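Supplementary notes (optional reading)

For those who missed the lab, this is the record we used. Protein: ArsR family transcriptional regulator. Length: 111 residues.
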Amino acid sequence: MDKIFTALASTPRRKILAYLSATSLTAGEIAERFEMSKPSLSKHLSILENAGLISREKKGQFVHYSLVPDKLTNTLNGFAQSICPVGGPLIKESKDIANKREPLPITAPDE
């Protein structure tokens, strides 16, 4: 539990969670949204991963980071971010990125 509170105590880490709310992102895509060095970003990602809030998956030559969906902490943080004046726009940006990447499936109406 201490690792989770430590992870959430940082504004950049809360912003990273908001960016990951609707889609996975590479470290490079996350870095584009922050003015910090790559080692600093790597440390933030490591803290979030060690707290069990995010996971990473290697896809080709890139590592994609995403939220761990079954964490109550992420659910609560997502709610707080959605009503936060800073987090709300970041969540919207995350959804926009997801919509550009993953077309919605076309389903036939129920008959």
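If you only remember one thing from this example: The domain at 1-69 is CATH 1.10.10.10 (Arc Repressor Mutant, subunit A).
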